[in-house]
Amino acid sequence: MSDGLSFDEGPERRALRAAVADLGQKYGQRYFLEQARTGGDTNQLWAEAGKLGFLGVNLPEEYGGGGGGLGELALVLEELGAAGCPLLMMIVSPAICGTILARFGTDEQKTRWLPGLADGSITMAFAITEPDAGSNSHNISTVARRPADLDGKGGTGGGNGTGGGGQGWRLSGRKIWISGVDVADAILVVAKLADGPRGTLRPALFVVPTDSAGVEAQPIPTEIVSPERQSTVFFDDVVLADDALVGHPDAGIAQLFAGLNPERVMAAAYALGVSRLAMAKASEYARTRTVWSTPIGAHQGLAHPLAACQVEIELAALMIQKAAWLIDQGQDEAAGAAANTAKYAAAEAAVRTVDQAIQTHGGNGLSQEYGVGALLAMSRVSRIAPVSREMILSFIAQHRLKLPRSY
């Protein structure tokens, strides 16, 4: 990996991009939408991407990964999205969960989880959002307690979660808008330790197998045309072993953001792929659709808006490259602003490009034949999740412009 930021991807990344594009074209948007509309899944594509090494390209080689960085993983998701089959769980399983486990997990946790995350045989969901704690993660109420606390005997243990004499944990709470629980083998849950007062974020991260007693998921019906589903997840006094805790209980906030910055970059890559797909459809239609003996793309009323969208796409791509590079270089503080900026830029590009692609197609933009209308909700959610555009603007105003905090 180069120490400097270069605008030349180099032969390895170009080869990776081409290989992923080939896989994406093998399946394509028709496959993706068919799975979405029939209640199917993308397990076949996921498994093949894992077998080819694409899912774990960012994970350590000693645990079955490719030894690359977030830049490579973002590239994979972008190309799959541009081919019409973005894998939303790439944002969650290898990016958030894989990054956190690779950086903060014990040797035993890495050995247990990372090889499966790398080859796609294990999928891990991530749970932080709650009904009363969306953007305000400081207000999470899902709590992890030592059994002794439930008996009034006190003590939360210490060290790496093993200081409680092997007594384990009890997890209770509710999470909402959790992606992929229906296909996940485990969930990386953000909980508050019992000794942390409400209003004070003392988070800790726990790996919770989805088949654990007390874990229940209820699907959330959405208007998003995607085979990947959203769920509300309930944790009813779930019994966890000591080694369910990831990292140190007093370093939860740093560990959390080690996963959230990659999440923003990967969400940006997802939106970028959607933008490229919409632009490819729109420009092809504008070149070939003829009205009054003239291709409609010759009219500046269509050509200029499409060109403006292309500018936004290319700017977003550059910001994603910068943010991923900062993360891969370990520059966590600088990466925060860059990752948020990349996510904002890519989401705005996606919304505007999809809207213009539909307008370019006219009535055909709303027909299933052309596959453009299906991108509408998918692009619009990019402005909301995993962090809203308004929260990003507040972050930039506070941390880059040094303006007073508004919340």
What brief labels describe this structure?
407 residues; alpha+beta; Butyryl-CoA Dehydrogenase, subunit A, domain 3; 3 domains; eight-stranded mixed beta sheet; two-stranded antiparallel sheet; 11 helices; 10 strands; 14% strand
**Global morphology:** globular
Strand content: 5-15%
The SSE order reads: HHHHHEEHEEEEEEHEEHHHH
Number of helical segments?
Answer: 11
CATH architecture of the largest domain: Up-down Bundle
What is the CATH third-level topology name of the largest domain?
Butyryl-CoA Dehydrogenase, subunit A, domain 3
Classify the secondary structure makeup into a structural class.
alpha+beta
Helices and strands in order:
Elements: H1 10-37, H2 43-51, H3 70-82, H4 89-104, H5 107-119, E1 124-127, E2 143-145, H6 147-150, E3 169-179, E4 186-193, E5 203-209, E6 215-220, E7 230-240, E8 245-246, H7 252-288, E9 290-291, E10 294-295, H8 300-328, H9 332-361, H10 375-380, H11 389-399
Parallel strand pairs: 1-4, 2-4
Antiparallel strand pairs: 2-3, 3-7, 4-5, 5-8, 6-7, 9-10
Helix pairs in contact: 1-3, 3-7, 4-5, 4-7, 7-8, 7-9, 8-9, 9-11
Report on the structure:
- A hairpin with a 2-residue loop joins strand 9 (290-291) and strand 10 (294-295).
- The chain has three domains: 10-119, Orthogonal Bundle (Butyryl-Coa Dehydrogenase, subunit A, domain 1), CATH 1.10.540; 124-247, Butyryl-CoA Dehydrogenase, subunit A, domain 2 (Beta Barrel); 253-399, Butyryl-CoA Dehydrogenase, subunit A, domain 3.
- The two termini are 39 Å apart.
- The protein has 407 residues and is of the alpha+beta class.
- 48% of the residues lie in helices and 14% in strands.
- The protein is globular, with a radius of gyration of 22 Å.
- The model is unreliable at 154-164 (pLDDT under 50).
- The chain has eleven helices and ten strands.
- Strands 1, 2, 3, 4, 5, 6, 7 and 8 form an eight-stranded mixed beta sheet that branches.
